From TrEMBL:
<dbReference type="GO" id="GO:0008081">
    <property type="term" value="F:phosphoric diester hydrolase activity"/>
</dbReference>
<protein>
    <submittedName>
        <fullName>PLC-like phosphodiesterase</fullName>
    </submittedName>
</protein>
<dbReference type="InterPro" id="IPR030395">
    <property type="entry name" value="GP_PDE_dom"/>
</dbReference>
<keyword id="KW-0732">Signal</keyword>
<feature type="domain" description="GP-PDE">
    <location>
        <begin position="32"/>
        <end position="338"/>
    </location>
</feature>
<dbReference type="GO" id="GO:0006629">
    <property type="term" value="P:lipid metabolic process"/>
</dbReference>
<feature type="signal peptide">
    <location>
        <begin position="1"/>
        <end position="17"/>
    </location>
</feature>
<dbReference type="InterPro" id="IPR017946">
    <property type="entry name" value="PLC-like_Pdiesterase_TIM-brl"/>
</dbReference>
<dbReference type="Pfam" id="PF03009">
    <property type="entry name" value="GDPD"/>
</dbReference>
Length: 367
């Protein structure tokens, strides 16, 4: 049943929304956008339902996640192109004498949903995230399953979503095509109660262009880092949909904003760092997102939400430059910093209700 709050948001005059911004997004834009990267992988094993549950409890404004597409065309919540042993472990074949078993090491695009959902992807704590909570036995979810959990935990439909297509233009045989991603993701988006609160993001800007052509109303976020700006012999990057950065004025920090604007992106999401040294207090530190990046993007009418910001020293710098949001593995800590800076933050979700919904949905997913 749709709540009264959600109905009231839907009838807000569209004229008051900025381009690409729905009423719900407008209402929640009064809060600084703390985005839980992969559900907040600093706190919970990434990309599984418990990660997103704890992100809500910790007060994230937006749930950030990635989609892959399986061999049989299902849209799943998973970051990597393949299943790596550091994150998942096999439990057994989907059916007797399955020639594809074991599945660890295989590409998502070459496995069916049934095969992928035999994997235990909740038991392994990542070496770089020693505070991760583990959830042994938890499986990979489909996007529909995540939305179903969210509807239970969020009856007022307040969650914002930042959903990425994991397309690889350099090795296209590793993932499904941009057209497959846009078609299949869009179908789920528009049939979800969250259709008005989804941002679509990608490093492969072909998917952003394709999504805009299909549905101009969905806000898009152009992801970019130093690697994706590297050009081939023709002076273009395979990641940027044929856009030449050197066709725009200014240095790289300004060019990336101009390039994102050229594909009608609503949001620029640049990497926070362009060097192996990752602390602004050290002399070798080189930021990728600069004050010039933020100012130029704002001048062009775009929001700026850098990723993946896990150092408060970098976050403080970005807040000084008036970014509109921050994608982080630690939404709880970032929310605290934003509050200390007297920026408004979104309300947290009731822990009891969220965990009850989580347990209900985990039981459904138990093989």
């Amino acid at each position: 049943m749709v709540s009264g709050l959600f109905l009231s948001l839907l009838v807000l005059p569209v004229v008051f929304c900025t381009p690409g911004q729905y009423p719900l997004q407008q209402v929640l834009s009064k809060y600084f956008d703390v985005q839980a990267h992969r559900g907040g992988r600093g706190n919970t094993v990434e990309s599984i339902l418990p990660a997103f549950a704890w992100a809500l409890i910790d007060g994230a404004t937006t749930l950030e996640l990635d989609n892959g597409i399986t061999k049989d065309g299902e849209v799943i919540v998973w970051h990597d192109e393949n299943i790596i042993a550091e994150k998942c472990q096999d439990t057994g074949p989907a059916f007797k004498d399955d020639p594809e078993f074991p599945y660890v090491g295989k590409f998502v695009a070459n496995l069916t949903l049934a095969q992928l959902q035999t994997l235990d992807c909740g038991s392994k704590r990542q070496i770089n995230f020693p505070l991760q909570s583990v959830y042994p036995g938890v499986r990979i979810s489909t996007l529909k399953e995540l939305f179903s959990f969210a509807e239970c935990a969020d009856p007022d439909f307040r969650i914002l979503w930042n959903i990425e297509s994991k397309v690889n233009p350099v090795s296209p045989n590793r993932t499904r095509s941009p057209e497959d991603f846009v078609t299949k993701q869009h179908q789920i988006f528009v049939n979800s109660p969250y259709r008005h609160s989804i941002t679509y993001q990608s490093f492969d800007w072909r998917t952003l262009v394709t999504m805009k052509a299909l549905d101009p109303s969905i806000p898009t976020a152009a992801l970019i880092d130093l690697e994706s700006t590297e050009t081939d012999d023709n002076g273009t990057s395979p990641w940027l949909a044929g856009i030449r950065l050197d066709s725009f004025k200014g240095d790289l920090s300004v060019q990336v904003a101009s390039a994102a604007h050229a594909i009608d992106a609503d949001i620029l999401s640049p990497a926070d760092v362009a060097s192996f040294v990752v602390d602004p207090t050290l002399p070798e530190y080189v930021p990728f997102t600069t004050r010039s990046t933020v100012e130029h993007a704002h001048d062009l009418g775009m929001l700026v939400k850098p990723w993946t910001v896990n150092r408060l020293s970098i976050a403080e710098q970005l807040l000084d430059w008036n970014v509109d949001g921050i994608i982080t593995d630690y939404p709880n800590m970032m929310r605290r910093l934003v509050q200390q800076r007297n920026r408004p933050v979104a309300p947290k979700y009731p822990k009891k209700r969220v965990l009850e919904c989580l347990n209900r949905h985990l039981k459904k997913a138990t093989p």
